[in-house]
Amino acid sequence: MKKELGVKNCLYPMPVTLIGANVEGKPNFITIAHVGIMDFAHVCLSMGKIHYTNGGIRENETFSVNIPSADMVRETDYCGLVSGRKFDKGSAFETFYGRLGTAPMIKKCPVNMECRLAMTVDMPNHDVFVGEIVEAYCEEELVTDGETVDFAKADPILFAMYDKSYFRLGERFADAWSIGKDLIK
Amino acid sequence: MKKELGVKNCLYPMPVTLIGANVEGKPNFITIAHVGIMDFAHVCLSMGKIHYTNGGIRENETFSVNIPSADMVRETDYCGLVSGRKFDKGSAFETFYGRLGTAPMIKKCPVNMECRLAMTVDMPNHDVFVGEIVEAYCEEELVTDGETVDFAKADPILFAMYDKSYFRLGERFADAWSIGKDLIK
Lengths: 185, 185
Known about the structure:
The structure is a homodimer. Chain A has a single domain (14-183), classed as Electron Transport, Fmn-binding Protein, Chain A (Pnp Oxidase, Chain A, Roll). The radius of gyration of chain A is 17 Å and the shape is globular. The first copy, chain A, starts with a strand and ends in a 10-residue tail after the last strand. Chain A is mostly beta strands. Chain A contains three helices and 15 strands. In chain A, the strands form four sheets. In chain A, strands 4-3-7-10-11-6-5 form a seven-stranded antiparallel β-sheet. A three-stranded antiparallel β-sheet of chain A has the order 2-14-15, with no helix packed on it. Chain A is 11% helix and 48% strand. The mean pLDDT of chain A is 97. Chains A and B meet through strand 1, strand 2, strand 5, strand 6 and helix 2 of A and strand 1, strand 2, strand 5, strand 6 and helix 2 of B. Strand 11 of chain A pairs antiparallel with strand 1 (2-6) of chain B, so a sheet runs across the interface.
């Protein structure tokens, strides 16, 4: 039997990211799992309008998407608990800059993307920032075939909101565009 | 050391969904993992413009998001391999309709959301459909606290594109908005 849950976003689990931006000239990071893929070169992220980071993204028109691994769960959660208005979250990490120069990235995160702000979708209480990916970075030992990120090794954090859960990634159990072929008649 | 990967979307793993729409009066489903959260009541999904399902979403201005469990991986993959132009994918599932009447949902999927089309973001090769969630449905035995989906029990499929991987969800290992509290000084 199905139970009706009302107007409830159930699109979980989602990957946890640390979004980086320079705000008032200093690197800042915020934990965001309400993210999405727009196409092969564009991602989106939904940020409550009250957040400090939004101003930096608007000002520089750049941001980064950093994917922390499970062993970074404390720092990752911390960046979602406190505001950059009061806490210097940039100094919690060793950072680096890429082509854009104003999108701070976290060295310790195994995967990083630097993005140019392409569009902002104005939702009632959220800015949805759409970023054009300018360059992606990955720790060398996680790269297979010279260009593919091994996400099992990246050990990302997955999030479900209502019971405040952080999950790890489980086993790779099937091949996409393959396991269903025997159903084609 | 970081390796540069070029313009490469690395926002994975993402949850695999089956998107439902009536097309030419019949239910159809397509496998989409390029999805996202816009805010508490809105999701987005990126669909290549060539797909058959897009016409149905435009026509009815409704669609559903169905979250299959790992034991549905064959049917799920199949719906990403073949087009509704040639194959009757709707008949592969027992379906139901909710409040909107034109957004077919899959009974076997533990979690379903029916959505009204709120906006379409026109990307060069993709339609990004933004849906306002009208009602969410969940199998009763997966609901805790009367309203929270237990995603560990839902056993969703997670996707990474470049190595064509389907993963399972791993262990719940930490509490969000909590594990990082000891870093607040």
